[in-house]
From TrEMBL:
GTP binds at residues 17-24, 79-83, 133-136. The chain holds residues 8 to 459 of 602 of the full protein. It comes from Halorarum halophilum. Keywords: GTP-binding, Initiation factor, Nucleotide-binding, Protein biosynthesis. Function in general translation initiation by promoting the binding of the formylmethionine-tRNA to ribosomes. Seems to function along with eIF-2. This is Probable translation initiation factor IF-2. One of its GO terms (molecular function) is GTPase activity. The keyword Protein biosynthesis applies. Belongs to the TRAFAC class translation factor GTPase superfamily. Classic translation factor GTPase family. IF-2 subfamily. Residues 8-224 form the Tr-type G domain. The gene is infB. GO terms for cellular component: cytoplasm. The keyword Nucleotide-binding applies.
Length: 452
């Protein structure tokens, strides 16, 4: 960790995309190669996040990256397992991620969660590149382990290359339908106005050097001024998940995007009902090279500096919310920080109407995304909250005047057993899905049927 006030912060790179398009494999590739090369100490793996230092990036990218050209410390990758998690990637005033990689399976093309990822990237104004993954599955492909994509393309038959190109042009077309001008990354001059497409294979590693190069270039060119923030200041982060850990009770998996957090710090965390004020008991990180999701043993560290993933153990975290802010109290009074957290939570507060539907979602970010989608569809909201569907929600939905509003829309949430009973005996309809636009569509179809 560094607490040098002039140090540049590691850019946060979110890896997004449809289920099984290869996000985790891509990160494993980046992480794994570094491990293979015996660089266990050079790669820091955090909760939900993998910090890849500049030396590792430059070794993986080979001739494509000269470390002397960069003064960023590396890249912090955030894996997003499934759709729901990336909508927690919010930070004050926008996106937690500085840039994003949208992973698309070249054969599968755009899929529902690709579109949802694009919607969120557009709304938050997050610059992104497209990783056109699984090029090795192109019929007749001649794999070139770990090579830059140009080298790999030179080794392909005309037939294989043109088959790949067909798929890539389809991606360019899909992006254009979404309002983005896109091209093969090596033809992109202006990465601010154009989306670069990097053909690659997470499996064979070809094209991965190119992706790292583009990400470093993007970060350096467009984000450097934002990166040089007060890395020694009070820690500011976002909760990714609230998890029970044996011996610690409820803990937070968080990404710190600014400043430093230390054991013993007083922190303020966005809670279900009110900001939670508590004291950091322990800061935990998985052992080097351990897969964070399966890791059982964590190493206690005295402090963590942004940008980083960290597990925070502290009392009273049961009601903390995924997607909510975490703030260290330092330089400001506790009251001031609580007020700031309240204000930040209010930013996300959904506009409600006298009559409307009840919305439940798994995280603050997904609640926000749901509210946006419903607003666009001109569907009023009576109440919107984070959490599983409880009997109380059924009772609230029952109070709606219009039949079309006696509805609960549940995004990525469970129905509590006693709420199930309530649903059966009431005239409240439940719609549940884990793709936002499908949920909205299902509801709209229901309304159409009622009104027919
Ligand atoms: P979720 O986390 O479930 O959303 O999926 P993901 O996007 O992380 O995909 P994951 O990395 O789990 O990969 C899904 C499957 O695709 C696995 O079987 C991978 O081995 C395979 N896969 C990923 N990348 C490649 C690739 O470049 N080539 C080939 N042939 N298979 C790949
Ligand atoms: Na998967
Ligand atoms: Mg995955």
């Amino acid at each position: 960790t560094t607490t040098d006030a002039d140090a540049l912060r590691t850019p946060i790179v979110a890896v997004l995309g449809h289920v099984d398009h290869g996000k985790t494999t891509l990160l494993d590739r980046i992480r794994g190669s570094a491990v293979q090369e015996g660089e266990a100490g050079a790669i820091t793996q955090h909760i939900g996040a993998t910090a890849v230092p500049l030396e590792t990036v430059s070794e993986m990218a080979g001739a494509l990256v000269d470390p002397d050209d960069f003064d960023l410390p590396g890249l912090l990758f955030i894996d997003t397992p499934g759709h729901h998690s990336f909508s927690t990637l919010r930070a004050r005033g926008g996106a937690l991620a500085d840039i994003a990689v949208l992973v698309v399976d070249v054969n599968d093309g755009f899929q529902p969660q690709t579109e949802e990822a694009i919607d969120i990237l557009r709304r938050t104004g997050t610059p992104f590149v497209v990783a056109a993954n699984k090029v090795d599955t192109t019929p007749g492909w001649n794999p070139q382990e770990g090579e830059p994509i140009q080298r790999s393309l030179e080794a392909q038959s005309d037939r294989a290359e043109s088959r790949l190109n067909e798929n890539l042009y389809e991606l360019i077309g899909d992006l254009s339908d979404e309002g983005f001008s896109a091209d093969f990354y090596w033809r992109v001059q202006d990465f601010q106005g154009n989306i670069g497409i990097v053909p690659l294979s997470a499996m064979t590693g070809e094209g991965v050097p190119d992706l790292l190069t583009v990400l470093m270039g993007l970060s350096q060119r467009f984000l450097k001024s934002e990166m040089s923030i007060d890395v020694a200041g009070p820690g500011r982060g976002t909760v990714l998940e609230v998890k029970e850990e044996r011996g610690f009770g409820a803990t937070l998996d968080a990404v710190l995007y600014d400043g430093v957090i230390r054991t013993g710090d007083t922190i303020v965390v966005g809670g279900q009902y009110d900001p939670i004020v508590t004291e950091v008991r322990a800061l935990l990180q998985p052992r080097p090279n351990a897969e964070m999701r399966t890791e059982k043993r964590f190493e206690k560290v005295p402090e963590v500096a942004a940008a980083a993933g960290v597990k925070i153990a502290a009392p009273d975290l049961d009601e903390a919310m995924a997607g909510a802010p975490v703030r260290v109290v330092r330089d400001q009074t506790e009251e001031e920080v609580v007020a700031e957290v309240r204000e930040e939570l209010a930013e996300i507060e959904v506009e409600t109407a006298e009559d409307g539907v009840v919305v439940k979602a798994d995280t603050l970010g997904s609640l926000e995304a749901m509210a946006n989608a419903l607003e666009e569809a001109e569907i009023p909201i009576l109440r919107a909250e984070v959490g599983d569907i409880a009997p109380r929600d059924v009772a609230v939905a029952e109070t709606a005047n219009e039949e079309t509003h006696r509805v609960i829309l549940g995004f990525n949430v469970d129905v509590l057993a006693n709420a199930e009973e309530e649903l059966e005996t009431s005239d409240v309809r439940l719609f549940a899905d884990d793709v936002i636009y499908q949920l909205v569509e299902e509801y709209e179809e229901y309304v159409d049927d009622l009104q027919r």
